[in-house]
Fold this protein.
Amino acid sequence: MRLTLTELKKKIATVIPKNIDYEVDLEAGSISIITKTPKSFVDGAENLTVKIAKLVKRKIVVRPHPSILVDEKQVHEKVSQIIPPEAEVRKIWLDPALSEVILECDNPTAAVGPKGAHILELRDNIGWLVNVVRAPSIESRTQHDIRRYRKEMGDERKALMRKFGTRIYRQKRSGEPWVRITALGSYREVGRAMHLITTNESKVLVDVGAKPTTNKNEIQPFFSAPELMPLDNLDAIVITHAHVDHIAMLPVLFRYGYRGPVYCTPPTRDLMTLLQIDYIKVSAAEGNEPPYSKADIQECIKHVIDINWGEKTDIAPDIKMTMENAGHILGSSSVYMNVGEGKNEHRILFSGDIKYEKSWLFDAATVRYPKVDTLIIESTYGGPQDLQPTREAASHELQELIMDVIGRGGKIFCPVFAVGRSQEVMIAIDELFKSGKVSPCTVWLDGMISEATAIHSSHPKFLNRDLRKKMLKGGTENPFHSKWFKQVESRDQRESILLDPSPCIVLATSGMMTGGPIVEYFKHWAPEPSNTLCFVGYQASGTLGSRLRDGHSTVPLVDKGQTLMIEVNCSLRKIDGFSGHSDRKQLMDYVAALNPTPRKIICHHGDAHTCNAFRQGLREKFRVQTYAPANLETLRLL
């Protein structure tokens, strides 16, 4: 049953003892209990927080009253006094919006102490909530900047979260419930993902991406669709993961006045920021006017609400959401929405981009959901002929290629996405070099790969257990620390690598060769027969990568305003198994694992032929309603 804030306060008052002072506030979808005695709610045999959460069926957070918080200088003093030196505290971060102190430690166990003794003592001395995390093996500049900015904007963020909550807990509107989805991008195409869920009470967007294409008219999703306007009517935006085709156009909405919440996982927040900043740089470097500024990205950061996998939260008056692992890239999520309640409840699952197989980095996509009425599923490799080798087979193929090319003194250059594929390829190379089967050579990382890898190091709990263990052990166990991986630090260094005759491997962005440093390596090395261009990721139609993959022996390349014709004499190899997308068989297995089978399945994120072929295959196998709508079409779900 849906409750207003007044009704929630009355219910909460029935279980809190009269002698405890507290206030009830809103923190986006969560109910915040603000008190001068936080331990009254969380300590002892009877946890009041749990009791309240069960009563009101909402997420409850307990925050200390501002009057009991010591200043930052005292926080640092108390940490040095209470936390033992063997904890090796590296950094102390304050998040005023959540009244939380984050301690980055090399030894979190020592920081916490027996039965949490050190943390409890610290909390009682400083008033702030204390969160202990393991210090990352590689420091991320992006995460550092986000934390600093969030600290500076603490008061504003707190006010924003209250505003978001007030909107969620507004009065119920009259009328019969209904649910619709409008296709605003990525339907019968790959790129510019954007979906609009509209109900009789709310509007929620899922993803706001860009399309990798040379056609300027197709880069942005359909912002001009009347269903989307005005932006003030949007209740929330949900981001499934941080690839450019899902996040690059999000700051455009902030540029034009959106001021609501953005829900995503913490790794998605960090990677999204990194890639959006890079999108501005790449646009400017190509002589195009960037669609937004860094200020728009900062405004977006201010509005982000972090959601961890498995946390159920209200995002609109009639929509609850849970994010779960999608297995695609770091922090990538499938989005499960409960729309409405009772007999009118409709459960929607956005698969996001999924990998239904354990990889070097992640566990397979989650399929455990209570019930799915409508599934919106990606179709990138949904065609009948789209079958990929296993991760093990792909790794073996790459390793064989490296032994062959490096053994004869050639160079391998791979266009890679900075996030996901880069790290998987690095692990496969690291395994080969450590095996002793080939003499190691330098592996140059050009573009944002090192920073993206640092963000992976900052979020170990979003990695699979095997890799998490290796990273936490550190040293030579951590594959990303191996001595053969070197970052290209400058244009001059890149020039020296291009002229160096020694064998090497280069992993460089962008993944579809639409720009970025990979184009420089291609321009210089493609004419040489001893070199090999190796594709390990999806190449969308219309990109330079797709033309090369299709076998063009000469391709045009715009360089400093001039069009060069590049002869492609190097070898070309395509290794499919590294893709972060499931193939046809895995996609079918994913749908089969959902129990019960969804009643409606909507296919998107594939070219027109593939989406339609996948839709037909799903209908034949599962005997359910299937759709492959075009952009700007609307389907009624309830």
